[in-house]
Structure formats: C-alpha cells, structure tokens
Amino acid sequence: MSAAAPEAAAPDLEVRSVVKRFTDHVAVDALSFSVRRGSFFSILGPSGCGKTTLLRMIAGFIQPDDGDIVIGGRSMSGVAPNRRPVNMVFQQLALFPMMSVGENVAFGLARRGVARAERLRRAEAMLERVSLSGAGHKRVDELSGGQRQRVAIARSLVLEPTLLLLDEPLGALDLKLREHMKIELKQLQAAFGTTFVYITHDQSEALVLSDHVAVMNRGRFEQVGTPQELYYAPATAFVAGFVGANNRIAGTVTAVDGPIAELVTGDGWSIRARCSRPLATGAAVEAFVRPEVAMLARVAGELPAGQTVHVGIVESLLFDGANSAVLLRERQSRFEFRIALPQTGRFADLKVAEQIFFSFDPERAVCFAAAGDHG
Amino acid sequence: MIPSLPTPRWLRATTLLYLGAFLLFLFLPLITVGVFAFNDAPYPAPPWKGFTLDWFVGNEPAGRTGLFGDEELLSSIWTSFVVACWVTGLSVAVGTLNAFLMERARFRGKEALSMLMLVPLVIPGVILGISILAFASRIAEFASDVAGIELEFLRPGLPLVVLGQFSYIAAIATITISARLKRFDRTLEEAALNLGASRAAVLRTITLPYLRPAMIGSAAIAFLMSFENFNTTLMLVGADAPLTIMMYGRMREGATPVLNAVSLFLMVASALLALTLMRRSDRRAE
Amino acid sequence: MVDTPAGGAWKGRLMLGLMLAPAVLWLFALIVLPHVDLALLSFRERLAPRQYGASLAQYRTFFGEPLYWHVFVRTAVMSAIATALTLLFAFPVAWTIAKLTRGRTSALLFVVCLIPFWVSETVRTLGWMILLRESGVLPQLLAHLGVTDVPVELLYHDATILVGLVYTSLLFMVVPLVNSFESLDNSLIEAAYDLGGNAGSILREIVIPHATPGITAGCIVVFMLTLGNYLTPNLLGGKNSQWFTEQIYTQFITRFNWEQGAAFGFLLLALSTAMVWVGLKASGQRFGDVMRRA
To answer: Of the CATH numbers 3.40.50.2300, 3.40.1350.10, 1.10.3720.10, 3.30.750.24, which one belongs to the domain with range C57-287?
Structure first.
C-alpha cells in the first residue's frame, strides 16, 4: 500500500499488520502502511474509525495487540513513549500552563540534559522559525489560538523528531483561523521537511495539507492515495461518500456497456456511470456524481452531445458564493440532485419550480457494488 | 503514572500494597471501637471474653450499665441533638441569605465582607471559644453592673455553645450555597419572569429548588460538624455537657465499653446519613 | 433578586439592609468584636480586685517562663511535622483516586477514604486508645508474637500524637489534592512524557506546579487544625502532650486567669495566621481562592 514515489526514499514510518482490540470492538484491524520520509501523511476518517487509537499506538500510549510499528528503521515494540523518536501535537495542544512559552519549547531539551543557556538559545531560535521570536517570556494563556498552535509544533520540532504526529490540532479553532492555520501548517512542514502524520475528520484539512491521505473506516484503510486520486478516483463507495460532496444514487444495474453501466433507481430514474469493477446486470449498486460534474442548460441542445439528458425541477437555490449550488428534483422520479452553479453567474437567475435540463459525463460518475450498510 | 504510560510491575504492586495499608490504617480504629462494644469484659481491652449485649442493654446483676440505661449519656446525646438542630437551622438560613447577598447584591465593601466571611475558618476553634466566652461575659457583667439585669444566656451554657459553633459553621454553609448559586443560569429566572411569574414566585419555584441540594448538603455537614465539635464547645460548655464533652470526660477516667456502644451508635448514624446523602446525589446525577 | 429596580431606591436599600443584617451581626458580634475584646483582655493586668490597668505583663510572662514558649514552639514544630506527614501519606492515595482509577472504582475509593471522617474525632481517638494503650490490642499482639517481651505502652509518645494528628487530618489533605489532580489534563502528562520526561521530572515540572494551590490549601488547613487541636494530643499524649491549647484551657478554665489565657490565645492565633500568610506567599495564592478550594 506504500505510496512510494519514483525516488523511493526510505520510509520513516512502517506499520505492519497492527491490531488493537477493545472489549467490544476492533479499533484497528490488521493495518499496514508506510509513510515516506519528509511527506505529509493524513489519516482521514469519521470519529470512532480508530484513527486516534492508531496515532496513540504510534506515539506509544497504547500497546498494539499484534503487529509491529517501525520508526526510522527501528521496531518500537517495548519502547516507551519518552524514548521514541516521535513527538506529538495533542488535540487540545497540552501546552504546560505552569511554564512560559520559552520553557515549554525548552522542556524536551531540558529532559535530554541540554545545558540551560544552550536550550534557551535553541528554544528562541525555534520560536523565531515559527515567527514567534521574542514571545519566549510570555505566559501560554497570553497567546492567541494560532500562536499556541505554533508553540505546540515548535515544542515538538525543537527535538528534531523523525516523525511528528498531529492529533486534529485545528479542531479547537474557529473556522477563519482554521483556514489560516491550514496554510501555515503546510508551509511549516515544507520548511522543516519533517515527516508529518496528521489525523483529522475534516476532509478539507486532509485534502489541502497532505501529500498522501489514507481514508480510514472501521479500523481499516479504505484507500490510500494523493488528494486528487481520492477525489477523482475513489476506490470505494465509502471514500466517494466521505471525501467531497457527492450525489449518491442507489439502484440496480440494467445494462453494461464496457466500463459503463446503466442503472435504474427504485423510482425508475435511469442514469449511466463508470464501474470500478465489472458488474453484472441485476447487481445492486451505488453511483456517485459530484455536483460540479453535472451541467445545466435551459435548452437541451446546449448540453454536450452523447450525454443522457435529464430533466429537473428546481427545488431550492443554495447561494454560498463560489460554492453556490442548485438543489433540484429529477422530474419523473422526484430524485433529489445537487448541481454546482457555474462561477460565471449564468444560472443565478434560476427560480424555484423552474424546469431545467442537466446531464453529466458517465466517465466522471463512479459506481460501486452496494456494500449493504456502511458508516 | 497514568494508565496510558508504561508502569513497571513493581510500582503497580507497591501502589496496591500501599493502598491496602492505608485503608487498614483508616479503618482499624473504627473496627476496634465497634468490636469491643460487644466484649464481655469490664474494660474495652483484649483478650476477647465472649460476645455480650450488656453494654447496650445493661446487666443489673453484674453491675453493668448499658447505653440504653445510662441516663447521663442519653441526655448528652439529646443535648448534642438539640444544639446541632439549632446550629444547622441558623447556619443554613444565614448561609442562604449570605449567598444571595454575595452573588446578587451590589454594595460598597462587598469584597471585604466576602473575605471576612472566610476568616472564621482559619481561626482555631479553641480561640473562637475563648473569645466568645470572654466577650459574652463582658456584656453580661456590663448588663449586671449598669442595669442590674442578669443575662443568663451569656454565661457558659448551651446558648453560647450554639453561637460558638454557628460562628464558623455559618461560613461553611455560606461557601457551599454561594458556590451553587454562582453556577445558576440566571436566564432561567428571566425566562420565568418573562412567562409572567412574580419575583417571589420565581424565588420559590426556580431559584430555591435549584439551591436545595446545596442547602441539604450544607445542613448535613452543619449537623455533623456541630454534633462532633469539641474544641469550641469545650470552652463554652456549662452544666449540660454535649456528647463529645461527656465522652471526653469519661475517656480520661478510663471508661467502660459503654463508650464503645455509643460510638458504634454514632458510626451507624453517620453512615446512614452519608448513605442517604449519596443516594440523593446519585439520583440527581442520573 | 435584590437588583434595585429604578424608582424603588428606598425599597431596594431596605431590602439590602435586611439581607446584610444577619451577616453583619454574625461577623461582628461573633468574630470581630470578641477578638478585639480578647486583644484588650490580653493587654491588661489585674491590679486589685475588679481593678485593671493596661500592661504587657501577660506577654512578658509568656516569654519569661520557658515552659510556656517551649510548649508553644513544640506545638508549632509538631504541627509542621504532622502536616508534612499528612501530605506525604495523602499524595499517593489522592493520585490513585484521581488518575489511576476511573468511574465507579474511583468514586468508591474516594468515599471509602472519607467514611472515617464522618465519625466523631472522639470516637476515632477512642479507637486509637484501645489499640495502643499498654493493655490494648497492639501491645498485646506484639507481646504475643514475641516482638516484645512484655506489652509496652504505645500511648503517650510524640509519635502517638503524630499518628493521631495525621489520621485526623488526612481528609483535609486528600480532598484538595484529588481536586487538583483531577483538574490536571492527562494530555499534559502525556505530552511531557512524549517530549522525553520521566516520572521524576513530570512530578517536579508538571504535577507539583499544577497542584500547588491544592497542596497549599491542604497544608494550611491541616496545619491550622493541628495547631488548634485539643482532643487528640490531650488523650493520646496524656501528660506528655504539652500542647499549647492545653495551656489556654488551663489559664481560662482551670485557673480562671483570663488575661493570661487571652494572651496565649492571641499568640496561637498570630502563629496560625502567620503560617497561613507564609503559605499563601510561598505559593503565590490568594486567600479567598485557597479557602474556597479547601
């Protein structure tokens, strides 16, 4: 599953069939993956998918029941958290309120026996690198949310760990600051070149920040790939549903034409979509069509030739700046379908209950065998 | 250190061992007191001479007075009970009033007053006792000299005991009830007013019911602290001795297991009080 | 409820006055004035029957008579030792309750630790007397096991007094410690460990700084209660107890020398207040915060 690039640098982290069971469920189920040196690797999944357990196993706060974790080429079994070449940025940051900012950053160096003058110098240098020079004497609660974030990262990076683990560190911030910190985190990672392993339930964070993202569900990875791969070529229905907005259409296959299947919903709406795996007629499937893949037209002839033309009734307009969309119902089946409005503002004058044509490229709609239930 | 960090086996074993020793230390004296209430011997000391209920019900032929026949002890329990009721009532009433005063009212010198309310807690009980004793006597002297009135209640006796205990138990009740009132969401009162309730009705139906757990809790604590108080009471007591003073006197003389019997009675009563309170708070938590 | 509505100023003021009255009566009639009176009492001397003059005689007696100030210093030192021992014994238990156990186990352990303190100090002291006196349980057991030849008297030693004082004080240390440990976020300990700390450095750099308010509160309360204790030193120490509260009692009740007793009382109060103040200064705490925590 390694996302090895052509240069094939040695992995900093290798997880080998790690298992963790709790009394009532399996939190991490025989998981294996590796993270390339210097990359930004995210683990994305809903709460309860096992990502926190996985991260805490890498940090050493939870012992795996089976399997091995190898960091920088060394097996970590039996190695206490304070002896691992790994540092962690905690969800609530866990900055020490009883110490100044500088003492926080110097804490790990003091534990390594670095002399006082030297560690203060290194802490200050590190603070400078995260644009907090001169803040060393401040108390932790004098800092803003974003600054505290940077202190938490600086405190770990000053120890030059092989691996930096980040446990949803942006979760506690408000939306605006979160957007800002996303960019800052990515720049920090690029500047330091340290391998980051980042867990989050926020798909936008994962997509923006990462070189590679693993989508985790029920203790397993559904897919590991670049953000683009996850978005444009989801490997499973779960990934298609979890990453990005999607119209989910459940139905039964009525015809197969090479990679393209035709399916019909329970209410009789028929669409075409690309299958990731060959499917037989009669199979229960789920198709996913992204809102920006479908196109709108007031005249059917304006839609690209060769695409099935559907007719919809505008249900409501969802204005959200660049993310504006229209929610409509397919005329015959009343199936609810969401389509992104073009940036040109061309359909800004749509009215509720207006009839409109739409179509989409079946190559860009994906369809999977229905998995029964999934989270 | 904490469960998520590796803990060596020896440390875990030591912790358990220590905990066991600690609990033994805590309960050994209490168990001893309880056990020797049933020993068929004139003194609460080993060896074990066999089981008897003499120290509760008495044994005329053997010349043993049991707890239920010991007029002196029984009347001291009654004295303690009466004192505790007075102290509890006064403390909870004043504590509740003070809570409103400190959390709701605005006036000059409030900060100083709130500090002053904590002061009784850092004055040793013996000193509370002597200062109240001396002050009350001075007023009584003054009244007798100037007006020729004998203010009997200012002489050592139960009224002074009640005042002495109240002087610091009121501080505890104030703190407990204020803490709860501080957490009260005032929008509830505003909502009730908005729904047409009068201020008195809001107090009766919203605020006081909210404060009730703290009032009941501080009532229990006040009762217990009054019942068990020794230091302040020792200085203010007159002819009628409350239970702790009575027990102290007898313990110095070398007492019979009747004291164990009354202690066991106290332990059971305290345990019942504690259990009732915990039941209540459990129900609230659910 | 007493926010003065506009237009009803006098009504609001009356209300405020009514609410203030009990508090003022309580604090002034029972606390402030009696202590002022006690101070006046301590600074006077009986010249003839019913005739008094201002004087420092009472304090001179205290410093002039070695017995008095020896007992005073001894009480202070023993109280300090008892406070330190209480902290030492309570610390691991509080940590276990707050951090090593969870949910029901933790709550149960906490309650179990509190139970003995629902029982009167008199009863607890009675228990120790039955356990420790020469004819008591432990000496008999030790003699029976052959550790000592004959039963030895375990009462009336300084160590006995300390055992009794520590026992009586544990609750007042365990509760504030548990509260401060519980408010310490586990992730801080994990973070310190993750950054290379070990048990010793985490205790020193994280736990103790965080728990300082709780430790201060516990120590202040325990020291004060120990200093002012009468029952435990008196019964467990017997004639050897030499506790300062006994001197106060003797002057006030036995000898009826109130002036001397008042001076002793004031000295004890001064010591107690000084220790509270030192404790607060040393830990940079505010009085109100600490008392409410305790």
So the answer is: 1.10.3720.10
